[in-house]
Amino acid sequence: MTTANKLTILRVIMIPLMIVFLYIKPLDKSIGLLGLSINQFIFAILFVIASLTDLLDGYIARKYNQITTFGKFLDPIADKVLVLVALLFLMILDPSRVPIWAVMIVIMREFMVTGIRLLAVDKGVVIAASPYGKFKTATTMIALVLMLFNDFGFTPWIANVIFWIAILFTVISGIDYLLKNKKVVFESI
Question: Is 144 in the same domain as 183?
Answer without folding.
Answer: yes
